[in-house]
Amino acid sequence: MITMNEVIREGHPTLRKKAEPLTFPLDSSMTELGEELLAFLINSQDPEIAEKYELRPGVGIAAPQVDVSKRMVAVHVPSQDPESSDPEFSAILVNPKIVSHSVQQTCLSDGEGCLSVDREVPGYVPRHKRVTLEYYELTGEKKKVRLRDFPAIVVQHEIDHLNGVMFYDHIDPENPLALPDNIEVLGSEEE
Ligand code: 4LI
Ligand code: NI
């Protein structure tokens, strides 16, 4: 089982490397890793399990965050509708690639967090509001999906990890709360 002990933190050189593409068929160590990454997210979102194992909640994790420099990520975004138990988007993505995206940008009103960053970094992280994503499942099946808003943000954050990019690289160092043109702030209903 993956716990926070397996998650490397900022300063570790693997987080700044470009991860290697995977080839199919995957070997069993890589399918197991994919399944473990997704299980980590599901566990981290369960209040009892998270408390017991001291897991920090997350909706996305990339293989480089457990020091495996391969192009694999897991995403598990729960439904916004508490009535529904189906997640909004849940997948293990192998060799994911954004093939097109909106001009419109979005960002989280409260900023982004990362399992590899043990501090709060204030500031808006501009992301594409809509993305078309191509990836492979663990079986080698090719998929193409369109995502928007929070799931799209999460996928962009995780693909950044495959390229050695951290979320705060995107924050304007002069004015962290500056909003670029054509951006929609997501999350807070206030203002
Ligand atoms: C408990 C159970 C407030 C602060 C609001 C928590 C189940 C921040 C937001 C969760 C913030 C779940 C999240 C991400 C932010 C903040 C990630 C809570 C887990 C909200 C996911 C990858 C950025 C993703 C919205 C510094 C570990 N996740 N919140 N950012 N949730 N979560 N990111 N931002 N401010 N990070 O962190 O998984 S993309 Cl689901
Ligand atoms: Ni991260």
Automatic annotation (TrEMBL):
UniProt GO MF annotations: metal ion binding; peptide deformylase activity
Broad class of enzyme this protein falls into: hydrolase
Keywords, alphabetical: Hydrolase, Iron, Metal-binding, Protein biosynthesis
Keyword Protein biosynthesis: yes
Cofactor: Fe(2+)
Active site positions, chain numbering: 158
UniProt keyword Signal present: no
The protein's Enzyme Commission number: 3.5.1.88
Family note: Belongs to the polypeptide deformylase family.
Name of protein: Peptide deformylase
Organism (species): Alkalibacterium olivapovliticus
Lineage: Bacteria, Bacillati, Bacillota, Bacilli, Lactobacillales
